[in-house]
What we know:
mainly beta
Amino acid sequence: MEKISIAKAPVFTSPNPMTLICTQKPDGTTNLATLAFWTYASTAPGKIVFSLNKGAYSLELLAASKEVVVAIPGADLCGAVIGCGTSSGRNTNKVEKFGIPMQKIEGTGIEAPASSRLVIHATVSETVDADDHVLHICNVNSVFADESIEAVFAWNGYAELAPAQKK
Length: 167
């Protein structure tokens, strides 16, 4: 075996599910950010875990509200997922900029992309400093799914986005 850096490890676990984290901005609009590091932590009760880079605007919004919607975007949003991960929502409305149709989610004012295979509404219960990221442990409030939507995955680490049927 060859010794590699942790940054290269995702190449060996591809495909990795791509995710959009949806938080509410002070003006009531939804901010979207691409989220690579997340997983299920428990099913009874439902818990998810994700981490955000310490420089992320979403981190500020989440610290203030403790409420989040995690959305698994459809394959038709590949370009928007890349755009949401390479621009800040601090001074940009990414929903408008990337032309993302949105849908209301029961139980929250935070919206999610209409083209979402899975949507999880959650509340942050605990945060942990993880050096360059902040880890969030969240209680799941509700989960919604649409099996007709094909999810997008990251391939070759996070170098390429495509549906899972690619290989």
